[in-house]
């Protein structure tokens, strides 16, 4: 199965691929297309173009699924996208939309609506904020319009600021006095006001002074320096608050203390790592648009030396989970260089020092690219000094040396041989003919530009993530993306992707080659206008469905995910016709889009042609009416068609690789279930196990040397030479011991994920440590296990509400901290876990595998 992009990531990918871009950048920046070629801006100009304060950022899971096609990102978006977050970093976030449990229980005891805050003032408001859960306060970041004004007008902010100052002066390194709720409320106020100034009203100097007084009180103490999990969460929010209030220039000394105090011992406390990243990702980057910050750096540029030393001295982080810290330090440093002549004089040699110490290729690549990009963008007049002029060309020469012009396509590739380049060219030429026969177009849509397209093909996901954004302007938290604006005569369409070693379904192992090329062809021959116009109606069933359908059908491959979904009968066709990126998760977008498009081509081709006739002249409402007016008329027939599809009608001719796996300790066993459709028979099996080993047995077993999560892929070949490949992921034990899996990447520290762990869980006797996990459709087995640490922690599971010793459907209550629960055939959705402290426990690791 291909991995599917989580909804949060999918939605973000429409405009940036990084969720925080939307919350930090002004609308003017988002609307911009293409990098600026201007020299460094003046302080006033930089301030006018300042990104907005940070919202309650969510970090979408990185995926190997393609992102939606999009217009080119602006240079501001790309700069912000380069500012990463440590893997597994802790953050306070709003709860998942469907999550029950603690937040729901709290809501039952205390209401959490905008009216609850607008109807309270002064001390009453402060008391309500302090008694609210952080989940409740976090929801305020989403307020707009009249509710936003009622909650966050300045008269509401001032008493909370006063309370924050009082609590900050007595800060003891924990949240005993609810300081976290107060700072979250204040951060939310600055964020909401910046995006809804008309509704909220202005904030004046009195609020700024109150904010500064509170922060001064916080940093006057010593407990903010505690290297603990609870302090890390609070410190991060206060450091971001310095940025939200545009007081970055007042806290250069604090930022220097935070950065110089960091060493690798912090890595055992993820929230502290995230706190160290807060000034790097927010204040020191966004501050460069603030004239007061620029003046402060000009008066004391030692912060630049701290950043340069951090970037060079912590290169050991590169390639690891905390690499973002090192990369962000370089980004901040080079962003400063273009802020003023005074700052530039001090910073220029430091930027060059970091660039010169960071080779373009290899482990230091991310640091080089980030530092060079910011310098080339914001201090362009000195690009020759830095040796970064025309940076995209420089990166292409270093990273993508193998090239071929294939008609109107230019292939720029990292590792493709001459034979592979020729094979890709042949595949794309054949797809042209297939596409035109499928959609029956009459040539390019008039006045659509982008008649040529550049392919950027990287050797692996790591290099794609490192280099692609700076070369092609695309988001990289995905498995490929097509970036184009056919209405701009100066735009160059690009489609970017990478190879996978096991992937024999795509030519030259290029992941999503034909899917992405379909997006390009669809944008030239079927859909008039730019991406915004093309998606102005609910037509994602077509945009993504036709790319999926063409990719599988052209390659003669079976969409096994779609066949599985067909058997579930989850959606009506009339529902899929209303798909948008905002209302659909990736399962509804991709396999169900495939099913809808395939059904319409097979059963109602005249409707497809009528729809495309309107799309090709830019009449998207008219095209939408073609299928919307069908209403529910095709639903019954579609449902019957799904049954036949699942029963075998959707198998492609030839072989389809299917298999199951079972795990016992460090050993995985594969059982072939492959299907041959039509003439021929499967005669060869090849398994790859993700650790460099393979087997040609039909039903092999393989023992891994190291515990972890691996990609197992089966390729089958029939007696006519046709092949099919299907992958899955497995998590294995070594010697029967506990699973060693990566730290979960969800920003919420109570969120589990697929094949990941949360270390250092703790609770005192009689209390519970609560967690949750989202299970995607098709999950067959969930295994939850705990290990390590001290004390006795019982493990509980509940499918519907928060798990506890009195509310559970599965449990493990062995003495000590080693527990295990296996749940078979769970349904999709949020599921709930808890570790109950029979005695005090600490240092326990909890893992989920599915």
UniProtKB/TrEMBL annotation:
Cofactor section: Zn(2+); Ca(2+)
Domain PKD: start-end pairs: 655-732
Q: Which residues form a coiled coil?
A: none
| Protein's UniProt keywords contain Methyltransferase | no
Question: Active site at which residues?
Answer: 516
Entry GO CC:
extracellular region
Instruction: Cite a single Pfam family from the UniProt record.
Output: Peptidase_M9
| Reaction(s) catalysed by this chain's protein | Digestion of native collagen in the triple helical region at Xaa-|-Gly bonds. With synthetic peptides, a preference is shown for Gly at P3 and P1', Pro and Ala at P2 and P2', and hydroxyproline, Ala or Arg at P3'
Q: Which UniProt keywords apply?
A: Calcium, Hydrolase, Metal-binding, Metalloprotease, Protease, Secreted, Signal, Virulence, Zinc, Zymogen
From the Swiss-Prot or TrEMBL record, give the protein name: microbial collagenase
